[in-house]
């Protein structure tokens, strides 16, 4: 074996090798990587990817366990959003083909039923808005009541944009147990992605959500022109937020948006991000969300599940299609990863 | 017939963005009969699309 090859093996990695450091710091002590360390991981040569994913998987198993949380999502109000998030086909400011739509209550109940049938324990109700108005909150309230009256006890999460304290309290009263509001990208990159509101406004909503006792779900989209440094910055900012869950999306360039011509992230790069985020967030639920089908394909999705991910969105997304839920459920069965049961979440 | 992804005539041009892997993740957005933009609802297991002129179609109908 050459000296170079020898250095690449796990057992003989030099003591200052970032994966050797991570083994002691993250795996043994549960302390997430610093920004500089995440950057070092992102800069690892491609031939260290398998080592990274193996370590990230060990970290996930040690600090989160073997279970995978399965979630379905539904768009309650689609399109026509006044905000200008440059990746989003639902912004009313860009000439995208997405038209506004509202889902009625029977449609919402049916979507929750379909989601529960997959074995999912989470159902997230999403609306394309800056923040909810009275009409939307009333629709959410009626929808949750109807879902419960249908005998479906799936856990309900919401993603309705920026909230006031009063709205946070209302959602708690409705029984919403988790709130999603993505920080989307590093603070330093956010003004390039969104100009109609600030990263700090998003942070404020998340702070209120946490203080009200709801679980915080916040992640973002990778592949929006951010640098490696900004990816590391983002991972550490998420760690500082300490959310219950981080959904990782990979950009699907949407027709009509400013990012329409962006190239999707390459598979190995995406997997490196998965491993690096796990090492920055050892105890956090890390969810595969949109874009994995395009970026990783079937094989890459499996590698991600064996590289730190412990939650998935099954079925379709808000405006894009996913792969059939059964294919993901089969994948989890093949990987011998148990699906988190509803009884474990209550 | 019109392309459900961009609304241009199917037979006109190459439609490179409409036939790649990204388009496979998109529900139809334009009516194939008249190219009107449709109101589309994606659900966890399918989609439905409504053209103001030609009515509703669903993923179940498309896949038989
Ligand atoms: S606030 Fe949400 S729905 Fe509105 S443009 Fe931004 S990402 Fe899209």
From TrEMBL, chain A:
Q: Which UniProt keywords apply?
A: 2Fe-2S, 4Fe-4S, Biotin biosynthesis, Iron, Iron-sulfur, Metal-binding, S-adenosyl-L-methionine, Transferase
- What are the recorded Gene Ontology BP terms? biotin biosynthetic process
Instruction: Please share the entry's free-text remark on the cofactor.
Output: Binds 1 [2Fe-2S] cluster. The cluster is coordinated with 3 cysteines and 1 arginine.
Could you confirm whether the keyword 4Fe-4S appears in this record? yes
Q: Domain Radical SAM core spans what residues?
A: 66-292
The answer to whether UniProt assigns keyword Chaperone to this entry is no
Q: Which reaction does it catalyse?
A: (4R,5S)-dethiobiotin + (sulfur carrier)-SH + 2 reduced [2Fe-2S]-[ferredoxin] + 2 S-adenosyl-L-methionine = (sulfur carrier)-H + biotin + 2 5'-deoxyadenosine + 2 L-methionine + 2 oxidized [2Fe-2S]-[ferredoxin]
**Pfam families, A to Z:** BATS, Radical_SAM
- Which residues are involved in binding [4Fe-4S] cluster? 81, 85, 88
Q: Which amino acid positions bind [2Fe-2S] cluster, per UniProt?
A: 124, 217, 287
A GO molecular function assigned to this protein is: biotin synthase activity
List required co-factors: [2Fe-2S] cluster; [4Fe-4S] cluster
Q: What is its EC number?
A: 2.8.1.6
EC class (word)? transferase
Check the record and name the PANTHER family matching this protein.
Answer: BIOTIN SYNTHASE, BIOTIN SYNTHASE, MITOCHONDRIAL
Name the job this protein performs.
Answer: Catalyzes the conversion of dethiobiotin (DTB) to biotin by the insertion of a sulfur atom into dethiobiotin via a radical-based mechanism.
The UniProt subunit note reads as follows: Homodimer.
* Family in the record: Belongs to the radical SAM superfamily. Biotin synthase family.
This chain belongs to which protein, by name? Answer: Biotin synthase
From TrEMBL, chain B:
Q: What does the UniProt keyword field contain? A: Biotin biosynthesis, Iron, Metal-binding
Give residue ranges for domain Biotin synthase auxiliary protein C-terminal: 38-61
Q: Which organism is it from?
A: Actinokineospora cianjurensis
- InterPro entries in the record: BsaP_C
Task: Summarize the protein's role.
Answer: Required for the activity of the biotin synthase BioB.
Task: State the similarity comment.
Answer: Belongs to the BsaP family.
Tell me its cofactors.
Answer: iron-sulfur cluster
Q: What is this protein called?
A: Biotin synthase auxiliary protein
């Amino acid at each position: 074996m050459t000296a170079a090859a020898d250095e690449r093996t796990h057992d003989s990695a030099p003591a200052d090798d970032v994966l050797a450091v991570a083994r002691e710091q993250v795996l043994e002590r549960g302390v997430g990587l610093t920004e500089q360390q995440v950057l070092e991981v992102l800069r690892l040569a491609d031939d260290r990817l398998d080592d990274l994913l193996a370590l990230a998987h060990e970290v996930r198993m040690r600090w989160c366990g073997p279970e995978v949380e399965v979630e379905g999502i539904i768009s309650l109000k689609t399109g026509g959003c006044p905000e200008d998030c440059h990746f989003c086909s639902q912004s009313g400011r860009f000439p995208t083909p997405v038209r506004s739509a509202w889902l009625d209550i029977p449609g919402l109940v049916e979507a929750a039923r379909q989601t529960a049938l997959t074995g999912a324990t989470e159902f997230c109700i999403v609306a394309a808005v800056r923040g909810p108005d009275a009409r939307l909150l009333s629709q959410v309230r009626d929808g949750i009541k109807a879902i419960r009256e249908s005998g479906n006890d799936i856990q309900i999460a919401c993603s309705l944009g920026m909230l006031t304290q009063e709205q946070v309290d209302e959602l708690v009263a409705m029984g919403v147990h988790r709130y999603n509001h993505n920080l989307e990208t590093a603070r330093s990159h956010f003004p390039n992605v969104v100009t109609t509101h600030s990263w700090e406004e998003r942070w404020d909503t998340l702070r209120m959500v946490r203080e009200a006792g709801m679980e915080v779900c916040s992640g973002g989209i990778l592949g929006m022109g951010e640098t490696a440094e900004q990816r590391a910055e983002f991972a550490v900012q998420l760690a500082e937020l300490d959310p219950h869950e981080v959904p990782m999306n990979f950009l699907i360039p949407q027709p009509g948006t400013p990012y329409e011509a962006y190239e999707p992230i390459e598979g190995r790069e995406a997997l490196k991000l998965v491993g690096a985020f796990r090492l920055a967030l050892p105890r956090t639920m890390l969810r595969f969300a949109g874009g994995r089908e395009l970026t990783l394909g079937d094989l890459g999705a499996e590698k991600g599940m064996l590289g730190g991910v412990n939650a998935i969105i099954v079925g379709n997304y808000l405006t894009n299609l996913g792969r059939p839920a059964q294919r993901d459920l089969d994948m989890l069965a093949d990987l011998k990863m148990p699906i988190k049961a509803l009884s474990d979440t209550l | 017939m019109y392309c459900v992804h961009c609304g241009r005539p199917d037979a006109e041009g190459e439609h490179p963005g409409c036939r790649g892997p990204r388009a496979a993740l998109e529900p139809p957005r334009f009516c194939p009969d008249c190219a009107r933009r449709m109101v589309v609802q994606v659900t966890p297991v399918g989609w439905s699309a409504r053209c103001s002129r030609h009515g509703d179609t669903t993923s179940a109908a498309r896949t038989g």
